[in-house]
Amino acid sequence: MYKKYLILTVGGSDAPVVNAIELIKPNFVYFICSDDTDKTRGSYTTVDESGKPCGIIKTCPNCNHQHGEMKSSIVAQTGLEKENFKIIKISQIDDLNDCYIKSGEVIQEIRKNDPAAAIIADYTGGTKSMSSGLAAAAMDDGNIQISIVKGRRLDLHKVKDGTQSARLIESSRIFLEKKLKLVEGFWSNYDFRSSLEVIAEIAGKPLSSEYYDRLDKIRYFCSGFEAWDRFDHQAALEQLKPYKNEPYLKHHSKLLSEIIRVKQWWPGESLEDPAKKSFKQRAHIYCFAPVFDLLLNAKRRVKQGRYDDAVARIYRALELFGQLNLLRWEKPLATSDLNIEFLPENLKKRFQIQEASGEKITLALMQGFFLLEELETPVGRAFDKHCKKLKLVLNKRNNSLMAHGIIPISKEDSLEAISIVENFLLGSLTELGEEKPDFELLQFPADLLKQASLI
After folding, report:
1. Is 119:68 a contact under the CB 8 Å cutoff?
2. pTM, two decimal places
3. Is 5 helix (H, G, I), strand (E, B) or coil?
């Protein structure tokens, strides 16, 4: 059987505290009280001090008539035994941060000692900072019932004794909305893994079916784009498939399908020989979607401050662009295993000695583009115009710790590399007579959760 814990903020009035304990009937009570100051004694004295520490007697200034009464301590009024309560003293009672931290420590103590505990937090008494600190800590936990004692007011200052009752406040919605704001922040920075961790935390709380449906959809989006961000495009497709026709995912769904098609037809991956396809068919199969994907991925890494990762992706985008253009040649040329029989006669001789040795002929990034130049392709012409700047990108990458050197990549370096390669790609597409992509439109939408009315 689980135990019920009540956390209370205690101020000058004992009535709401006594009322909460009697109505909730906890197994254990934590009293969060004010400590002594230079001028006054703290509210902790009303909890268990002997005699009659509760209440107040006032004297009328006109007739000297006294009214009010003094009562025994809160634990005496409620019959609490010493082993069933604990007093927490706060010295900085008007410091919201201190009150929040102390309240959080109480919650952590309960969770540590009794993981199955049912916790109720009542923030009726105490200073505004004390009650606000407890309420905020309880809402951040997300699995604590929040209570406040209410009653009939005779004026703006005092609730009539005997009319008080403890009312539980539905706080799961507040907790959920706060956590979803956190998810939104992670999403806007493309930190999908952290978003998934927060969603897992939320899903462990008791929520309405409406919220569970909402969370499921957010989880699908986060899982899909998290998989896509690490290039597991098939897994991304499976997660995002139910929403592929939504207006806010139309362009991304098309890009994802094109990337998967290229991967399926990659040399060595396809059951069918790409050489049997016509030039027009191969131009369709080997589209440049994976290159655009790498460029967009690099831009996301820059936003996260991962500049070396960005340049590594730019390098691969450039290399892949060359490989795809060679696969589009009159006969597909694979840089991992060059078939020199598909080359013009004037270029065969260069590789015949290497072929005669029995070695597999492979081409590095620059060799691939030089071959495209010699084959007099449109991309070869574009490469000739951009070659000098592209070499700057390669030098930055080669000198980085992630390649062959020890020099870190700066933000400026990564942005320059992206700009150079993007201009080369757009120039190449102009030479090819192909449509230029809208990279801003194709980037992972930072406001997707808003577009889908999930945040």
Report:
1. no
2. 0.74
3. strand
